[in-house]
Amino acid sequence: MGWKIMIFFPAIDIQEGKCVRLQRGLLSNLKVYNEDPIEQAILFKSLGCEWIHVVDIDAAFTGAPKNYESIFKIKKYAKCRIQLGGGIRNLKTVENLISHSIDRIILGTVALKDPDFVRLVCEKYSDRITIGVDSKDGMVATEGWKTTSTTKDVTFIKQLEKLGVKRIVSTDINRDGVLKGMNLKKINEILKETSVNVIASGGVTSYEDLEKLKKIENERLEGVIAGKAIYENLISVKKAIELLK
Question: What are the structural domains, with CATH classification, of the chain?
């Protein structure tokens, strides 16, 4: 146990070149918040963000990178650290992203399907690899959340630890993009049952959510991702960063 500053990650989800938000990962519940994700990233940087959480929505659903040009421009012009997820399922893609100075890569679906690949990239790139553990009612979801597996999330995380995984992004799909508050019970369960570092995601709605997260006071709780709450002006980026110090 201990305490350190938690990182506030504003989220930029890119679909067909635009900054969007989904509800519960459904493309049918899509809203465009900015036609220019690069402009959005520069704004976040100007508000004090050191990291930005970026998701290639098109790639998450198809497995084929579609928005990398925009993402590489975010890295170049916003001059911040980027954690990127969405459809990253092979070594060639990982190496391409590393060569373009993407700071942290989030693997999702592939982690459940190909443990040998996870072990390989963790050995090769160590701290730059993070696994996105997206869960629905306690079970791991894959393929851009279209499919729910029969694997329990905590069981899966324990398997990942054995492969060399040091960090996960934990997302509760039922809370994502619906502004209903975070699943603190799940975050506490992961911290208690495993030894991975955790970035919490899904459901940030208010400063109260951030305060509750901060009260967990576990040094392995590295940060929190927020999206819709920022875009709907329920929380300000500057105040959120300040609150988590």
Answer: 7-243 (3.20.20.70)
